[in-house]
């Protein structure tokens, strides 16, 4: 979020041939340099393949960037030749050799020794890599050194605490950037502006006015080749403990003292501390069976490649929680996420209380005045809708609900990809959009007991909004396309 120029640096990707580097990091780095944000930088890809050299890595990256169809082959070749380097570690990485390669590149390109280590690796590999970097003296360099870690950060509370200790053995908290890529999304950052830059929303942001809050992260996708990880993780670890909880804290937090990372993190942590323990009966888990999405027949979760035919992994979670403070006591927060739902949709629905009495009684026979609803749409079609009542023209006298809408695309065109924002913030040393050690542990504390409980997993057909059992949570769930 900082406007200053990026300092010259070496960007080291550990796991450079993996899925995250391929789908997100390399395209984001390419876009950032194409826009001129990364001029004095070099990228060092590190992975186990020790047959590959700089040219082999460039050819591999060229192919993948070309497949996005966003730039000409000549531009991509030029970029790869200028920016990309590679270091193959083999099966037993020698971090002293890696350190020597880093120093050689810095000398060759006259870089001042600022370094990013982006760990694009499965979480199980993180402790050994952090220790390897630390023991080789790579946690401190001639300039600044920043370590970027991906979610999941730990597997439960105990493992997250252990991982924090292990990482802190070599890196200070001020060097650590734990990403939750949802926080890099423009519309998620906009939540803070929306709440604290507009007086009329903030004044109506409490139990006096709000009936309930729903947060939905729905995907029509399946596990997309990550079955081995997902089978162990399930939706509670994969989405709820991090992305949905982050969204919830941004909605519920008090106004921070300043737009600074420490102030914002402190307010988010207070929300986490004020959530009452979640009862297993307020949690509904589901797993998709075969069904239809967009008219196409799709397989059930248990038929997906790499998934056990008896799997009990939840691909859907809906739950109700309460933030027991003066602002929110009594307002249910309903969180919901799932794979193979009818469409991709991330939204926050703020449902206001109904008008206390209807003065339209004899005309509006049902006396059915709908509540105002604010829908903050985080993706796709980013923006918001405010649903309000108007008189339907003509006779008989009738009220109808209409939306007042704002769309990012209409106002500003294409938005930055979350990973571009995340990378820029790391390079600027701005930790606002990253999760700190205490926050991660508080978030695990919320769900830790649920992870051990034997909560039933109900089937739901792909292409539906989850198992029928979610009705017991008493949420209204806005599913229509607004
Ligand atoms: C990831 C989860 O963190 O977020 C995936 O591991 C999920 O399972 C993804 O599909 C959703 O992110 P986005 O940005 O595509 O909404």
Mind explaining what this structure looks like?
With 482 residues, the chain is of the alpha/beta class. It has 2 domains: 9-150, Rossmann fold; 183-413 and 436-473, Dihydrodipicolinate Reductase, domain 2 (2-Layer Sandwich). 34% of the residues lie in helices and 22% in strands. The protein has helices at 19-34, 54-66, 73-83, 95-108, 126-135, 157-168, 186-196, 199-203, 227-252, 261-274, 408-412, 418-428, 437-452; strands at 9-14, 41-47, 84-88, 115-119, 145-149, 176-179, 210-218, 283-289, 291-293, 296-298, 316-321, 333-338, 345-352, 373-379, 383-391, 399-407, 434-435, 457-461. It has a 9-stranded mixed β-sheet with strand order 16-15-14-13-7-12-11-8-18. Strand 15 (383-391) and strand 16 (399-407) form a beta hairpin. It starts with 8 loop residues before the first strand and ends in a 21-residue tail after the last strand. The model has no long low-confidence stretch (mean pLDDT 93). Bound molecules: 6-O-phosphono-beta-D-glucopyranose. 6-O-phosphono-beta-D-glucopyranose binds next to loops.
Sheet with most strands: strand arrangement = 16-15-14-13-7-12-11-8-18
Q: Name the CATH architecture of the largest domain.
A: 2-Layer Sandwich
Number of strands: 18
Proportion of residues in extended strands: 15-25%
Any idea what the CATH superfamily of the largest domain is called?
A: Dihydrodipicolinate Reductase, domain 2
